[in-house]
């Protein structure tokens, strides 16, 4: 009996080992180079041990394979092709987009009716239609209309900081900027006040934080969903819990009703999102809510954290901060002591500082794609080894934006904060600067984000000097679990009101 059990166990183990081995042979059989890995955990064992984050692991693999156009790795049992050659990035994101139409993300319409309507997770004709609708909500003319609100909120941020300065001059700038972003999104997206500069935690901020920040109850589940979309299909995971969904739709409905009853036309994002849906049904409520929700899930932390990283770099690089302040003050004074839309948008050095901040700290450090149609690639650039690969439908692709942004081959002295590199005409290969992505699925909100960042930073830098403080951690230590580049303990700087100097 004992022998029989032993033989059965041995056969099961041998069979499992054979299956694992077959699977882990995936890249070797296709002639794709890559590091050796362990069964089950693949190349991500260190992530499970909590020693390294996913971005760190991809970045190290990227660096180790200098000269290779791509590298094959295993995210646990899933084969992933890590792209190194910018020409292949161009194929995936633009030229041969037909073979790579999907992001490697998933949300089920029956489980999460709001998030499943987000362009990030959609594909095919539905993606095209939702993307087009959202782009029209964020047209240059609509953003210009919203500028008045964004400018007012930025001024309120300055008053808020001024008040806080009576208690302390050491701040976590991510906290301040998240407050600003919620004010902007609540006003433009839901037609309500965020009240983030008045009370400690407003209802809208609570909702936004629960939705997407690392403090949210489900931060582990969110990370799991991002990194293993196929597994999360099995556990009915939803970003918008029933409670948040109900709250969200109820605020949205009451604002739209109030506007209708009072014949009010407000030129904001909410109005534009509701425009195509004259009939009010649950399905159309979801459609409108999904656009607004996108401001929270895609546009909140991304914009707030990017601004915080930029302020951190300005605190470390005083000469750059002074040069930027001179440009901002000149613009402010030229306009008779205010910031107007056109001139603020034209601030060149500010724009370069923003792009350089996003280059050094890309909010989406790895861009996940999935192959939708068979595709064969052989590099033509002699700087890469002459290897070819046939990518099959369903294969996961990783575009390691962070590693590419820190590759000295594309960005000289990559650890240095040098906005000037973004001021040289044609100085940057656009397939190596991936802060907002490129090609057909490029970020929909980049113009809106740039507008918020420009006016927010213009007010900040005009009024305050930022310096490193004893609490500043240098270099920054990113949260290894969180999929949006974040710093777990905040970004601490010292703030001084320039009028008190
Ligand atoms: C500094 C702020 C932001 C950064 C750095 C950023 C970055 C990105 C990146 C890297 C992508 C992936 C692009 C690709 O796959 O090629 C993306 C996609 C997207 N972003 Fe943003 N984003 C920002 C703000 C926003 C805002 C404010 C919104 C909404 C209003 C937004 C909405 C979206 C959407 C809907 C997509 C998916 C597009 C698609 O798949 O068709 N983003 N963003």
TrEMBL record:
Family matches, as Pfam families: p450 (PF00067)
InterPro entries recorded: Cyt_P450 (IPR001128), Cyt_P450_CS (IPR017972), Cyt_P450_E_grp-I (IPR002401), Cyt_P450_sf (IPR036396), Insect_CytP450_Detox (IPR050476)
Keyword annotations from UniProtKB, A to Z: Endoplasmic reticulum, Heme, Iron, Membrane, Metal-binding, Microsome, Monooxygenase, Oxidoreductase
PROSITE patterns: CYTOCHROME_P450
Keyword set includes Oxidoreductase: yes
Cofactor needs: heme
Binding site for heme: 443
Transmembrane segments: none
Compartments reported by the entry: Endoplasmic reticulum membrane; Microsome membrane
Leader sequence residues: none
UniProt KW Membrane keyword: yes
Topology with respect to the bilayer: Peripheral membrane protein
GO cellular component, one term: endoplasmic reticulum membrane
Function noted in UniProt: May be involved in the metabolism of insect hormones and in the breakdown of synthetic insecticides.
Family in the record: Belongs to the cytochrome P450 family.
Name of the protein in its database record: Cytochrome P450
Species for this entry: Phaedon cochleariae
């Amino acid at each position: 009996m004992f022998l029989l059990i032993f033989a059965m166990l041995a056969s099961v183990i041998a069979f499992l080992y054979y299956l694992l081995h077959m699977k882990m042979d995936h890249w070797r059989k296709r002639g794709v180079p890559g590091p050796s890995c362990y069964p089950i955990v693949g190349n991500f064992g260190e992530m499970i041990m909590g020693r390294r984050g996913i971005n760190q692991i991809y970045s190290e693999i990227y660096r180790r394979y200098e000269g290779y156009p791509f590298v094959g790795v295993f995210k646990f049992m899933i084969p992933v092709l890590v792209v190194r050659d910018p020409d292949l990035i161009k194929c995936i994101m633009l030229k041969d987009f037909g073979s790579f139409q999907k992001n490697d993300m998933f949300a089920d319409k029956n489980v999460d009716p709001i998030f499943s309507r987000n362009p990030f997770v959609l594909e095919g004709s539905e993606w095209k239609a939702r993307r087009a609708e959202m782009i029209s909500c964020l047209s240059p003319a609509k953003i210009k209309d919203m500028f008045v609100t964004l400018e007012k909120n930025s001024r309120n941020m300055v008053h808020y900081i001024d008040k806080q300065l009576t208690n302390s001059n050491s701040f976590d700038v991510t906290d301040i900027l998240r407050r600003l972003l919620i004010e902007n999104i609540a006003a433009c997206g839901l037609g309500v006040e965020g009240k983030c500069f008045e009370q400690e935690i407003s209802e809208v901020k609570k909702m936004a934080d629960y939705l997407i920040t690392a403090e949210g109850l489900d931060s582990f589940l969110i990370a799991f969903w991002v990194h293993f979309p196929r597994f999360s299909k099995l556990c009915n995971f939803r970003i918008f819990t029933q409670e948040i969904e109900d709250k969200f739709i109820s605020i949205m409905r009451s604002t739209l009703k109030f506007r209708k009853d009072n014949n009010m036309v407000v030129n904001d994002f909410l109005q534009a999102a509701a425009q195509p849906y004259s009939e009010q049904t649950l399905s159309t409520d979801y459609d409108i809510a999904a656009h607004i929700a996108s401001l929270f899930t895609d546009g909140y932390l991304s914009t707030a954290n990017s601004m915080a990283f930029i302020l951190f770099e300005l605190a470390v690089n005083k000469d750059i901060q002074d040069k930027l302040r001179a440009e901002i003050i000149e613009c402010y004074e030229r306009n008779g002591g205010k910031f107007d839309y056109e001139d603020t948008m034209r601030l060149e050095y500010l724009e370069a500082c923003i792009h350089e901040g996003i280059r050094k700290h890309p909010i989406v450090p790895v861009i996940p794609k999935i192959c939708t149609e068979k595709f064969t690639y052989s590099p033509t650039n002699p700087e890469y080894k002459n290897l070819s690969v046939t990518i099959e439908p369903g294969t996961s692709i990783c575009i390691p934006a962070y590693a590419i942004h820190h590759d000295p081959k594309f960005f000289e002295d990559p650890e240095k904060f040098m906005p000037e590199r973004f001021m040289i005409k044609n100085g940057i290969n656009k397939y190596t600067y991936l802060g907002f992505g490129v090609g057909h699925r490029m970020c929909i909100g980049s113009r809106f984000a740039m507008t918020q960042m420009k006016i927010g930073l213009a007010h900040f830098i005009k009024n305050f000097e930022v310096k490193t403080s004893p609490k500043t951690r240098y270099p920054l230590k990113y949260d290894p679990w969180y999929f949006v580049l974040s710093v777990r303990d905040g970004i601490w700087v010292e703030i001084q009101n320039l009028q008190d100097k």
